[in-house]
Amino acid sequence: MKGGRSKADTAKKADNKLGTKRKAPASDRISKKPAKKGKDPNKPKRPPSAFFVFMEEFRKQFKEKNPNNKSVAAVGKAAGDKWKALSEAEKAPYVSKAAKRKTEYEKTLAAYNKKQQSGGSDDHEEEESDKSKSEVNDEDEESEEEEDDD
Predict the structure, then answer these.
(1) What are the distances in angstroms from CA 104 to CA 57, 91, 114?
(2) From its phi and psi, is residue 143 left (phi > 0), alpha (psi between -120 and 50) or beta?
(3) CA nearest neighbour of 71 among 59, 81, 83, 82
(4) Span 54-104, pLDDT tens digits
(5) What residues contact 95, with CB distance under 8 A and at least 6 apart?
(6) Out of 47, 95, 130, 145, which could bridge 101 as a Cys pair, Cβ 3.0 to 4.6 Å?
(7) Three-state DSSP class for residue 85
């Protein structure tokens, strides 16, 4: 039997498969990407598209017809089907509302960007404002205790 494998050969091959190295846990790996900056809570939200403007209205109607339905997926599926069935003329009011919201958003975003450029970025102040007063007080107490220990 040329080319046949003995049991010893297959056992060695199985051992090799078992001896593969595993990746280190995610916490041990070093990320090569730079850290993301935190979101600015003052930045204006993006405006909804025409479909989401339609969804606001559709959710109310769907809830009235199906008060026992708790599934978000079912509402989304039904809304998607109805949106596809609408003609361009029926979609027009939602498209115009979305366009109006987009122009308002662009104005507020321009004002926000202007304020950011003129005011400069005060990252340190923003970080402290995210913490509650009790957390800030706790940090002050800890630093005082460390000084007392010295």
Answers:
(1) 20, 20, 15
(2) alpha
(3) 59
(4) 999 999 999 999 989 889 999 999 999 999 999 999 999 999 999 999 999
(5) 50
(6) 47
(7) helix
The span from the CA of 126 to the CA of 32, in Å, is 26
Token match 């321009």: residue? 110
CA dihedral sign, ordered 40, 42, 48, 54:
positive
| Structure tokens belonging to residue 16 | 């090799």
Q: Could you read off the pLDDT of 106-150 as tens digits, one per residue?
A: 999 999 999 989 875 554 444 444 454 555 555 555 555 555 555
Residue 135, Ramachandran bin (φ over 0: left; ψ between -120 and 50: alpha; else beta): alpha
Helix (H, G, I), strand (E, B) or coil at 13: helix
Residue matched to tokens 């001896």: 19
